Amino acid sequence: MQITVCTSKIHRATVTEADLNYVGSITIDPDILEAANIKPFQIVQITNCSNGVLWRTYAMEGERGKGDVCLNGPPARHFQVGDKVIILAEAWVLPEEMENIEPVVVFVDDKNKITNVKKHKLIEPFTNG
């Protein structure tokens, strides 16, 4: 049996474009994809922090260095320019492979420039207060 796991996360990226007339997918700056170890055409899950919508599609490379995060096709109805999103890359693994999974979290600023990259196991837990 295989289980689905998160292999990487792009945390709170800003949507730069929403193109309803494009065929589909999410276009992401290659610098961000590489930092997150997300491959072109890999399935990703996008959650809109502004409205709670969750969408699954495949990643495509945009133009390097521009900070693009563009929702193409139908998701353009649910993701607008300026929305904050969380992008998760998924993989199927065997349960015994779980101990070797070290998801990467890529942190970006409001212009989608990388500010930090951490292994998920090393991130300090959130404390309230």
Task: Give a structural overview.
With 129 residues, the protein is mainly β. It has a single domain (5-122), classed as Barwin-like endoglucanases. The chain has one helix and nine strands. The chain has one helix at 30-35, and strands spanning 3-14, 17-19, 25-28, 43-48, 54-61, 69-72, 84-93, 104-108, 114-119. Strands 2-6-3-5-4-7-1-8-9 form a nine-stranded mixed sheet. β4 (43-48) and β5 (54-61) form a beta hairpin. The chain is globular, with a radius of gyration of 15 Å. The N and C termini lie far apart (41 Å). The model has no long low-confidence stretch (mean pLDDT 92).
- Indicate the overall shape: globular
Binned, the helix content reads under 10%
Low-pLDDT parts are: none
Mean pLDDT: 92
Number of domains: 1
Describe the sheet with the most strands: 9 strands, mixed
Q: What's the tally of helices?
A: 1
Strand content: 35-45%
